[in-house]
Structures are given as structure tokens and as C-alpha cells.
Amino acid sequence: EIFSYNPPKNLSQAIIIGVKKCGTRALLKFLSIHPAIAVASTELHFFDSYTNFQHGLQWYRAQIPINRSSQHIIIEKTPSYFINKSTPLRIARLLPDAQLIIIIRDPITRAISDYVQLRNRHRFYPSFDDWISSSNFTQRTPVKIGCYTQYLRRWLKYFPRHQMHFVDGENLIHHPWEELEHVQTFLNLPVRIHREDFYFNPNKYGFPCLRQTNGCLGLNKGRRHPVIANQTRNKLNDFYLTCNAKLKRLAQINFSWI
Ligand SMILES: Nc1ncnc2c1ncn2[C@@H]1O[C@H](COP(=O)(O)OS(=O)(=O)O)[C@@H](OP(=O)(O)O)[C@H]1O
Prior knowledge:
Blueprint (H helix, E strand, L loop, with lengths): L11 E7 L5 H8 L5 E3 L10 H5 L1 H7 L10 E5 L9 H8 L4 E6 L2 H15 L6 H6 L7 H4 L4 H10 L5 E5 H6 L1 H11 L11 E4 L5 E4 L19 H22 L7
Parallel strand pairs: 1-3, 1-4, 2-3, 4-5
Antiparallel strand pairs: 6-7
């Protein structure tokens, strides 16, 4: 039954499939100001949860209400899709034409961001440097995720490269309008999001916000990061060197931090 749903004509779907802690929320929020785009306000976890998946595509689509008649592209973001084993096949079966948006950033910064989130949830937690000093540091999920190619390979089995778009999460912080222009072009949309739509907020460590009410992200985004030792950085740099080189080839991208 769930495979028999026919999407309404003229409605296309894009999904921000990840990556966790790379700026997925900022990207979705910024895209939501485009007149043609409707977004899901929460992470839907439809394709990575067996229970949610049983609700079927009709349920999924109902989670993304269309508020304006101009809206014809619906977008949701669930960062765990990128690393979830079942998700690529499920999306390929149900939404074979979906456009996949993948935001990635410097894996070291990403690992620190993931670590800060974990530390906030636990009362006692080792420092980042101690955490990386252990011999099995590459097995820690926050470190592993930053080796993006391991997961990207799986996606490329189900989707051609031209159905994917990579966003530079570092540049989204410094020049959001540039990254958004690329996304709008990828989605075949006229460019409606411009430099004037943004300002940099000194109260949010200089992160960009939209020039509108509630235009900044919430307090759980843009957290303070710990300063890390050179030794830690070098260790992570060595680990990510091969991953990044593979990424450059596999994704055919050339971001400044790769
Ligand atoms: N404009 C703006 N405002 C605030 N934060 C911004 C922005 N752009 C990118 N970022 C970075 O996004 C990081 C959080 O990424 P995600 O939204 O993908 O996190 S999550 O996976 O949904 O938890 C978040 O990570 P932390 O700095 O560790 O909080 C930010 O570095």
C-alpha cells in the first residue's frame, strides 16, 4: 500500500539528508524564505525509523503543509538519514526523483560540535583532548561520521551523482547567500534569496541570521567550542586526510577545507 502513492503533479521533493552538525538547520531555515519552498518544521525521521515508515508516504507528505499557492517544492531535513543503512533504498523506492542535498563541513569542527552536544547531555565528560587521545578514537561515532565517503558510497549505489548537491557548511557560515544560490540553481528555482536577507549577529558568535523576526537559530545552535590542543588537531588531521582526498574524488567537489 505504501508503494502505491502518486505524488501530486507539479510537486517535487528535496531532502536534506545530512550531515549531522554541519548546518542542516541553518540551511533549511534559510531556504524556507523562498516563495516556492515549503519546509517541515521538525525532523521527520520518516525514512530512518521503521515505525514512522509504516505510516506511509501520505503521512509523510502531510507533515509538510503547503502554506502559499506558490509553493511547489517540499523540503525536510533529517541529518541521520545520511548514516542510516536503510534510508537510501527506502528513498530510492518511494521518491526515486527526490533531489538530495548534503551539507558537509570540516570534519574536525564537526566532531567538536558533536562532542559538545554529547557533553551537554552528560554530567561528567572527559575533555575533547582526552577523548581523542585514546587509541580507538576513530571508532567514536562523532569522529567516524566525518569520514563522509564511507556513507556516500552507499548513497551512490541508489542515486546518480546529478541528483545530489553538496553544500559547503563552512561557506554557509561566512557567505550563506553563495551557498543558497547554488542550492536554488540545483532545484531549478529562480534565485530569490540574496545577500541583503542576512546579517551577522555578534551575539551569536558572528553566525548569520535572517533579517526577519526570529531570524536567528535557537540557543542550541552556535554553541561555544572548546579550544583543542595542537596534538589533537594533528591526530585528527592525519585521520581525515585520506577520507577528504577520497571525498574530493567521489563527490567531485573542491571545498577550501578539503
Ligand atoms: N546561521 C547559523 N546559526 C547557528 N549555527 C549555525 C549557523 N550556520 C551554521 N551553523 C552551525 O550549525 C551547527 C549545527 O548543525 P545542525 O543544524 O546540522 O545540527 S543537528 O545535526 O541538527 O543537531 C552549529 O554547530 P555548533 O556551533 O556546534 O552549535 C553551527 O556551527
